[in-house]
Amino acid sequence: VARYFDYREKDYQMNNRSMSNLRKEKSQYYNYCSEFFTNIDYNDDIVMEHSIMDLVNFLKQERRDTTITKYMNIISQICKFGQRKGLIKALPNIPTFSRINEEVPPYFPKDIEQIRNQILEEYRKTEDRFFMMLYDYIGFLSALKINRAGLNSLSVKKFQFNETRDTDYPLPIVKCTLHNTKNKKRVADVLEPWFVDQYYPKLMKCNSDDYIFMPEEKNRSKLYERVRKNFVRISSELGLYEFNSKTRPMYSIRHMNALKLYEDLKDVNLVAQALNTSPEIVSMLVSVLSPRITAPATSPPESAFTLLAMSISSSIVSGSLPPRYLLT
């Protein structure tokens, strides 16, 4: 990638062209695209196409489809440059505007339950701690509705979690704050009670300045790529990766969360505000797929505590959280 932009810069200089467009392209690539193409095999066209679609699904949360095609053009030009230089054997398929314009189907709670059960089975067979971490991480993506699959959520640390207790309820109410997200410097929400009950205590055994997911792995980009590849593999082996002839990357868990949150709030604009996305995307998901959403089989029955946590999540969105639950 660096060689491509060096080549473009020399070409601009030789032809006395304004560098503003090139600077814009570099900014677009390094600010939005680069993390999707770190530590991957560029000669593996399947891996490349999955990375490209992960990027498209991310960009759809905050960019118009016509703008996304400009990002795809940058990726296409980089790949063509790599092929000319003998660095890439085959060009990956770059999605067309019509494909970009298609809705990305969500996973459903029963799908995530199947995937996590299979991950747990792989841990039992291999005793590889990675699969136990993957099992927890997918649960974390499902339990915190503001989450996006990616380096930010994979790199959360203990200090980003705060809890408060209510004498009427057995479990702590846990808020997680994500920093330096793509759209905001700081965004927070409460974890679902089933996750707090089953997994939160184990994750909090790490040191305060450590990552909670595999803290010994300092190369987080490499770890995320392993996470992404195994998720795609397991989802595919279970026959879940495609839905209505469209692929569902790990990012589709976020769309599941949007539908679950809509069932709580019954307001498209509040859901969009909570997830930092557009009302149009939420409306599309709700109108097409809302009837398919059901409670996860691993979740406890809807108790008074569960309803309280839902109420707090809604209050964080609306800014009306009672003082005793304002965690800093």
Quick overview of this protein structure:
With 328 residues, this protein is mostly helical. 55% of the residues lie in helices and 6% in strands.
Which features does this protein show?
two-stranded antiparallel ribbon, globular, disordered C terminus
List the helices and strands and how they pair.
Layout lengths: L1 H13 L5 H14 L11 H15 L5 H20 L12 H4 L8 H18 L2 H15 L7 H4 L6 E4 L8 E7 L6 E5 L2 H6 L1 H4 L16 H18 L4 E2 L2 E2 L4 H14 L2 H8 L3 H11 L14 H15 L10
Antiparallel strand pairs: 1-2, 2-3, 4-5
Report on the architecture of this protein.
The protein has helices at residues 2-14, 20-33, 45-59, 65-84, 97-100, 109-126, 129-143, 151-154, 193-198, 200-203, 220-237, 252-265, 268-275, 279-289, 304-318; strands spanning 161-164, 173-179, 186-190, 242-243, 246-247. The protein has a three-stranded antiparallel beta sheet. It has 15 helices and five strands. A hairpin with an 8-residue loop joins strand 1 and strand 2 (173-179). With 328 residues, it is mainly alpha-helical. Helix 12 crosses helix 13, helix 13 (268-275) crosses helix 14 (279-289) and helix 13 packs across helix 15.
Q: What fraction, in percent, of the residue positions are helical?
A: 40-55%
Mean pLDDT: 78
Number of strands: 5
User: Low-confidence segments, ≥5 residues, pLDDT <50?
Assistant: 293-328
- Count of alpha and pi helical runs: 15
Strand order, biggest sheet? 1-2-3
Secondary-structure element string: HHHHHHHHEEEHHHEEHHHH
Share in β-strands: 5-15%
| Rg value | 21 Å
Distance between the termini: 41 Å
Label the structural class. Answer: mainly alpha
Quaternary state of this entry equals single chain
Biggest beta-sheet profile: 3 strands, antiparallel
What is the overall silhouette?
globular
